[in-house]
Design brief:
With about 260 residues, the protein is of the alpha+beta class. It is about 30% helix and about 15% strand. Bound molecules: adenosine-5'-diphosphate and magnesium ion (MG).
């Protein structure tokens, strides 16, 4: 599990910054307008992923800040686009009611523009490996469909954030929305199985919003027209076949390391 580099395990200062109860709109306002103070770097992160406190008149919370300047160059994604892809994942999750991505904004910060996301106090008593292997958990199954929509190339076990209250969030959606099929995930347990009625309903809403709603316009700030069209196409394919996708043939299907 990640720890803020500034502290030793169990002593990261996070206990002092337990998240206040805030609705989505208030969280977004705090993230967008608050003062960002870097507390430490997340030691198991591959990019400059910073654990921060965000403070405004409305309150204070912990968050993650990933400045574009700290993004590691990748061969398969254009430089400087990962933070925007994280925002795009949030927009899709929120618009269609998937609710798997914590509140996220794109804003300026001490190391320049980047994404800023509410910190989720994950329940550390849960066994994440066991959770990731479950074939029964409807939250996980919904996340598998969301990942197929956003074409997530990095759904690792450590990117699952289950809360004590029973909600399941995911994080690290920087390498998503590639226009070619590159789903890479630890959640293949439903491959080839029928999509649930709830998943089909969420897919229909997503398609609708991408076709006639504001979502496509919002995404245009972060993704290319080709990537948005490919997202629409992935949803159409899921709705046509009505099954969870199978691993790509020409692409490593499971991220390494899987945790
Ligand atoms: N919003 C968040 N809430 C709680 N924990 C998070 C959040 N974002 C990231 N983390 C934790 O920090 C780790 C590193 O962040 P991640 O987004 O995976 O960075 P990187 O892009 O560098 O891999 C994650 O595996 C997770 O444990
Ligand atoms: Mg990661």
């Amino acid at each position: 599990m990640a720890e803020a580099a500034a502290g030793s395990p169990g002593d990261t200062g996070r206990a002092a910054s337990r998240q206040p109860a805030m609705n989505e709109a208030a969280s977004l306002e705090l993230l967008a307008t608050g003062e960002l103070t870097v507390e430490g770097r997340l030691v198991d992160a591959s990019n400059a992923t910073l654990y921060c406190t965000i403070t405004a008149a409305v309150g204070q919370a912990a968050c993650v800040y990933k400045p574009v300047a700290g993004e590691r160059p990748l061969w398969d994604f254009p430089d400087g686009t990962l933070a925007g892809r994280e925002l795009a994942a949030y927009l899709v999750s929120r618009a269609a009611g998937w609710d798997v991505v914590p509140p996220t904004v794109y804003r300026d910060g001490p190391f320049g523009p980047g994404m800023c996301q509410l910190w989720i106090d994950a329940d550390e008593t849960l066994d994440l490996v066991e959770l990731a292997r479950s074939g029964e958990d409807p939250r996980l199954r919904q996340m598998a469909v969301f990942d197929a929509v956003i074409n997530n190339a990095d759904r690792k076990i450590g990117h699952l954030l289950p809360t004590a209250a029973g909600h399941l969030y995911g994080c690290d959606h920087g390498v998503c929305f590639g226009s070619e099929y590159k789903l890479r995930t630890v959640l293949w347990q439903w491959r080839g199985k029928k999509l649930t009625p709830a998943a089909l309903a969420a897919l229909r809403v997503s398609l609708d919003l991408l076709t006639t709603g504001q979502l496509a316009a919002e995404l245009a700030s972060w993704l290319t027209a080709t990537e948005i069209a490919a997202t629409r196409r992935r949803i159409e394919l899921l709705l046509a076949h009505k099954v969870h996708p199978s691993p790509p043939n020409d692409w490593p299907a499971v991220p390494w390391p899987p945790v």
